[in-house]
Amino acid sequence: xxxxxxxxxxxxxxxxxxxxLLPLVHRERKLFFAKGRVAAFTWSALLLFAFCAPATAQxxxxxxxxxxxxxxxxxxxxxxxxDRISNIYSQLGELSEVEVRVVAGxxxxxxxxxxxxxxxxxxxxxxxxxxxxxxQDNIERVLDVEGNVAxxxxxxxxxxxxxxxxxxxxxxxxxxxxxxxxxGHLLAKWAALWQKVTPNPFLSEIVTQAIRVxxxxxxxxxxxxxxxxxxxxxxxxxxxxxxxxTVGFAVRDTVENYISSxxxxxxxxxxxxxxxxxxxxxxxxxxxxxxATVLMTLDGNHLRIPNAQVFKAVILNYSRNPxxxxxxxxxxxxxxxxxxxxxxxxxxxKKLEFVLTSPKSDAAINAVGDSNILxxxxxxxxxxxxxxxxxxxxxxxxxxxxxxxAGFTLPEPIYRLRFDQLPSTLTDASIAPIxxxxxxxxxxxxxxxxxxxxxxxxxxxxxxxxxERIVDExxxxxxxxxxxxxxxxxx
Length: 491
What we know:
Blueprint: H1 3-27, H2 29-33, H3 37-50, H4 52-58, H5 76-91, E1 99-103, E2 106-113, H6 116-127, E3 134-141, H7 145-188, H8 191-197, H9 201-227, H10 230-250, H11 252-267, E4 275-278, E5 281-288, E6 292-296, E7 302-306, H12 307-312, E8 315-317, E9 323-333, H13 338-350, E10 362-368, E11 372-382, H14 388-405, H15 438-452, H16 466-477
Parallel strand pairs: 2-3
Antiparallel strand pairs: 1-2, 4-5, 4-8, 5-6, 6-7, 9-11, 10-11
């Protein structure tokens, strides 16, 4: 019983109950109307139930019956059904032995078939005939070898014949695929064109590979369209998309590094043999590959940094600007004049040939300690002609000696010792007096002697080109591809 039928029965019964209660409510209307809202609700419910069944009967949107059975009393109808089903079965070789009997629209099929699939087909065909009420299945499934193997052999022969007839079209599709793919391959081999179009060999290689893949995909699409296999083409493309997405998630670090290599080859953040600091890694640039940036550390060791890290790193380039400033600190006694110490130190630094006059050297008071005043000295050198570290070292030595010769005291750390009780063996007579200013005089004499006997060979600040020569030799001997292009501007 459907929900619609159940609702109709309930509405019909409710209507009869409501009609029987209407006279009672009319007689006792004073009691019902005295309750106000209760009375109104009661009247509304009775009227609704009273007209429920007619409204239901008049509803045009009611669902129809599942099966409409036409009742006929004459016999020719069953005969027509029997003739129609028998003619259909006679045209199908596997159903030719099925027997049909029709009584009052009920079809009974019997006989034998080879398998269950043939039996289901016979039942389905019988149900589709107009006038059939139901179908009784009395078919025997014999499951013989001949009846089950013969259809397969016949289907195989049909498939072979179909493939033979389709051979010309298949050859045409394969020919079109080969022509398109080969054309893309020839276009990708046009290296001179892509080197002019793309900014570097790395992007040129990427473009050529993309052209090859595009040509193969286009050839496959055209060939499948010629064969009429559009559904297969959609399945292949969908599967390729899912596989590509999965592989992309699996190798996302590699993809990120590959994309970073492309961006670095376009940006050209440094040149070969430049002295750079990438994050905390320092060295001279050997080459930029498709996977990593190779540095030669100042100790002569190879350092490979993934390009994904280089692309996001803070890069400090010492070679881009030949002028570089050095800095050092010296302390003088708290009682000395710091301005006089600054003038003395700067005058000594100006005498050094490797210290540039423009920008000029400078100095400033950095901090005042407990027993000294810290002064910061600044100077500029040309890194192309001067070794930075040697120049800074000699500038510190020169400024220190000048301050000592001028009488400034470079204080040493002071430690305060406290003795709560002297040992009984120590008396005033046993303590020998310490000569005054002995160490100071020796220090001054040593400073003066060092200044007077200054060796000019120690002022050699010629840059050490050993690491640069190693980098140049490696770039000439190693054939690994390099994405650095000296003809492109550096960003």
